[in-house]
Amino acid sequence: MNWPKNWSAWIAGVALCLIAAGAGTAAAQQQQGPPPFGASEAALPPGEALKQVELMAQTLAQLQPQRPGVVDTYVLSASFYNDPVFESEAKEAAAVLARRFDAEGRTIILSTGRGANVPRTYPSATPNNFQAALGKIGATIDPNEDLVIVFTTSHGGQDGTVALMEANRMQGGLRPLSLRTALSQAGIRNKVIIVSACFSGHFILPFSSDPGALVLTAAAADKTSFGCEPSRDWTYFGDALFNHALRGGSSLLESYDDALSLIATWEKDLHVKWEALPASQKKPGTEPLPSNPQSNVGDAVDSVVAKAEAYGLAINCAAQLSVAVDRAKTGRPFKGLSDWAALSTAQLAAQARAVAEGAKRQRSTSDVAKAVAATAAGVLQLYNAQPADVTSRTAKCAAPAP
Known about the structure:
The protein is α/β, with parallel strands linked by helices. The chain is 46% helix and 13% strand.
């Protein structure tokens, strides 16, 4: 395939994930100098092209309407690079966000796939599909009351561009200013932008004067982030924020702070492994330095986020406390949480909050009970992998409100 000269120069300079030799360490999500948002794209075979068009049309048509008087949340989660880790992260992050923000039926996943010859599950993350998704969301929401969350995961360039790559078919990049422009053109006022990529701190400045924007990034503008090996399910950032912190009863921003602590611990361990390498293997540019994730919160968006996640927070706490009560009653308590009477009191309070918040969202008591039961089943499964995290999150839910 004959790419234009500027693409050839970019591809020649691409630096994929950096892996410290012999340490089995996580890789840095690093690339060099992608062009502005857009892509050089080869056409799909006719049958596959038809499937993609129909899949995108179906995805947009299934988006649920906005509910007047309800702070609805719409989620757009995009994997922009066709390594499996990014599609896995986009899919699982969308699920976590949908539960937290009551966005089932209001969530779109786009992906550049999982590699050549792997069947496609989601509409392709082409620039047009990404723009169409924003356009559909913008046309559906009430911009005065609703929230839009955009999550992107990929490699990143030193100028802040998020790489867009579908092997042997499409190459491009999304710049921070391009995303800001697209959101503005779509009429999206209240937004949360989460970027998992190296050098993603570049997304902070373009939105710093926007009172309706909350931006969370995996790294500072001059730092790489870690965990992008194709064999992983999550990057470090995605794992800490979505797979750990956001599954609890803390707010989005509190969860982000919790995620920073996890990331710092993992990166410290990564550096210890690097330090243990023989000097001959410590090549220039391979030292895993802290990613230093960044955030910026607009003056007007914090209160919108709080309203949007209130129901999900209450469901999470009611579910975790329900599990804790059952375990305490049967003599298998979470560590430090053996007083089932006190736990029952906290669980009833959380359930009442969930019912009250659910009523604001046109959810019946039965809907709330089903949501709590489904989340509790997930808590039980998660406890096997994250016992300390689940216990800590449950303890927070059990603590008296300040």
